[in-house]
Amino acid sequence: MKINQDIKVAVDAVVFGYTENVLKILLIKQKFGTNEDKWALPGGFVKNKESLDEAVSRELKEETGVVANYLEQLYTFGSLNRDERARVISVSYIALINPKNYSLKADTDAIDAKWFAISHIPKLAFDHKEILKKGIERLQAKISYQPIGFELLDLKFPFSDLENLYQTILKKKIDRRNFRKKLLSFKILNETNEFQKNVSGRPAKLYSFNKKKYRELERDGFHFEIKLV
Amino acid sequence: MKINQDIKVAVDAVVFGYTENVLKILLIKQKFGTNEDKWALPGGFVKNKESLDEAVSRELKEETGVVANYLEQLYTFGSLNRDERARVISVSYIALINPKNYSLKADTDAIDAKWFAISHIPKLAFDHKEILKKGIERLQAKISYQPIGFELLDLKFPFSDLENLYQTILKKKIDRRNFRKKLLSFKILNETNEFQKNVSGRPAKLYSFNKKKYRELERDGFHFEIKLV
DNA sequence: ACAAAAGTGTTTTACATACACCCATGG
DNA sequence: CCATGGGTGTATGTAAAACACTTTTGT
User: Fold this and answer.
1) pLDDT of B5 higher than 80
2) How would you classify residue A142: left for phi > 0, otherwise alpha for psi between -120 and 50, otherwise beta?
């Protein structure tokens, strides 16, 4: 095809993590080379022979060492002056990670990778602030009607973790009793025999998310939904 | 930048129209040149100096003569073999149109443009069937929690048009009384003094969508929502 | 007067909300 | 025994769902 088009295609990911009751995102910084002293979303250019999904996964792995089990396309940013060096469009993604499962050793060692609390994000390169904003909005919308919050928690978690996760992401107060009542009514949580250890106060029973059960219920018309007005 | 990337960027639109109580989409067919005898979503390659949104609007205008007042980015399709001639990624959109407002004279006259009932879609080129599927899903989700259905109707419409629109798109039966009660409780419809003309049965009063009022309510925390279980 | 579609209220049911005290553990 | 967070039930309010007959117009 003889099309006179010179546009580069990149992917970028807003990677969410949740530790110590704080929502965080994963940012990188080039150690050498690049002029700017700014942090950026992990990402990079798509190769000719890889799909978009493959590209994000690869870049994430290369730049941060992280492998996301939840990855969802977010939006494609294509305005003219995103990158001054060339016309670049960015297909963005959101990813959910449990930071405990990975150490950020920054595989390709020219890169610094770090978790930043959502409340203390540094100045970001390009239009990444805008991408992040859209990513947060999507996360808020998505955890309200899909059980994806569990991807951010340990496999076995106390109810309070779930509560705090929702309160943090949606910035709303929860009534603990009603929240628990609702979640249990969905019947997608398994009660384990385990309890928290070494905590102050009464140790909480641990629960796990029953994904298989959820899929079944979903097939039968069940809709997960958590609304915090 | 010295990136060895050879990927072309296209845009495609799933354009919805609604006439005679039937949901339709707008398809095009190249009159000469292209090999395939298949219909396709309107769209084309992005120019170096235009944004993605500008690109869809331009292509829509060029290929079908239509100007969408509602246009929303849908998803970016980027698998390897979408187009056999080259690596092409497609940033897709959905658009809502009232077909009565346009005649499809196919501006660039090498192209045929036609409305197809959603229930009688011909074989589509490339992966456009997949794009269409995602477009329909998005439309169904979106009209459930945003008042975008009005973009498909006349400025003044009888309640029955709204009912039929929702029933058609969501493939669910509506209780007319409850539906009307709910819509009216939102207070985003203006009652006009006009009535249907030349219809069988009792002529219905016409209503119009008060967008300004909706924006105000939205700002105050109101959430539009129509759920048809 | 008949056919066709519009218009209209009430009752029942289910879910969301609001709310406060006792329990288990570690120090 | 005190501090810390975990666990639990009921009453009330509000919105959704179910449901059928009368009205207006054209033929």
Assistant:
1) yes
2) alpha
- pLDDT tens for residues A86-128? 999 999 999 999 999 998 865 556 789 999 999 999 999 999 9
Residues whose CB falls within 7 A of nucleic chain D? A 158-160, 176-178, 180-181, 199-205; B 175-178, 182, 195, 200-203, 225, 227, 229
d(CA B22, CA A194): 56
Chain A touched by B172 (CB under 8 Å): no
Nearest CA-CA distance, residue A77 and chain B, Å:
8
Strand partners, B30: B111
Residue B41: closest CA among B7, B72, B9, B16? B16
Tell me A201's DSSP state: S
Quick check: B145 contacting A, CB < 8 Å? no
Query: What would the DSSP string read from start to end of A114-155?
Result: EEEETTS---BSTTHHHHHHHHHHHHHHHHHHS--GGGGS-S
Which segments of chain A have a pLDDT < 70?
1, 32-36, 105-109
pLDDT in tens, B40-71: 999 999 999 999 999 999 999 999 999 999 99
Look-up of token digits 């919805």: B16
pLDDT at residue A111, as a whole number: 83
Compute the mean pLDDT over every residue in chain B, rounded to the nearest whole number. 94
CB A42 within 8 A of CB A50: no
Put simply, whether A154 touches B (Cβ < 8 Å) is no
Q: Of chain B residues 209-228, which have a CB less than 8 A from chain A?
A: none
How crowded is residue A96: how many other Cβ atoms within 10 Å of its Cβ?
A: 23
Cα A41 from chain centre: 12
Residue A28 bridge partners (DSSP): A40, A113
pTM of the model: 0.94
List domains and CATH numbers for chain B. Answer: 8-129 (3.90.79.10), 148-219 (1.10.10.10)
**Entry field: residues in chain B:** 229
Q: Which residue has the higher pLDDT, B25 or B2?
A: B25
What tokens were used for B209? 């969508």
Cα separation of the two ends of chain B: 53
Q: How many whole angstroms separate alpha carbon A191 and alpha carbon A193?
A: 7
pLDDT category of residue B86 using cuts at 50, 70 and 90: very high
Q: Which of A9, A49, A73 sits opposite B80 (nearest CB)?
A: A49
Residue B86 burial by Cβ neighbours in a 10 Å radius (0-12, 13-18, 19+): exposed
Length of chain A: 229
